[in-house]
Design brief:
The chain has three helices and three strands, in the order H-H-E-H-E-E. It is α+β, with helices and mostly antiparallel strands and 140 residues long. A three-stranded antiparallel β-sheet has the order 1-2-3, covered by helices on one side. The termini are far apart.
């Protein structure tokens, strides 16, 4: 009983929990009677787009045999743009970029595998100044 009284659908989250995930959970929770997800819910795998490219010598850094980081950033941006465009069926507008890190240098002749997924989407139709949707994309 004590555990059931602290379930998310019975109690408001404490300070350690964030309000946004809680509100998303309430809005998108399954219908208890039919056990079906809401019609507005889209799972992440269908929004994933993959890209594979061979790193050629013209993309190398001037003073080494590794690929220039700016070229890698360009590839990730273009893939994120395509993923956002395909998911919303409209032309996305770039707003911001979180800090990016490279796990390892990419050598010339290497194969670069990238995948982009919509991690979060929110409709912005209620706001007069913003039209469309807000998306958060993850590129790996």
């Amino acid at each position: 009983k004590r555990l059931a009284s602290t379930a998310l659908n019975k109690a408001i989250p404490n300070d350690a929990e964030s309000y946004l995930p809680y509100s998303l959970w309430l809005r998108n929770s399954y219908n208890q009677h039919t056990n079906l997800p809401p019609s507005s819910l889209i799972y992440m795998p269908p929004t994933t787009i993959h890209s594979t490219a061979i790193m050629k010598p013209q993309y190398r850094n001037r003073h080494s045999f590794m690929v220039f980081g700016g070229y890698l950033m360009k590839n990730t941006f273009e893939l994120a743009f395509c993923c956002a465009s395909a998911s919303t069926r409209s032309r996305p507008t770039f707003v911001s970029l979180d800090p990016s890190t490279f796990l390892a240098p990419v050598p010339v002749g290497g194969v670069l595998y990238l995948s982009a997924t919509v991690a979060y989407a929110e409709s912005a139709w209620g706001n007069v100044e913003e039209r469309g949707s807000r998306l958060e994309l993850r590129v790996e």
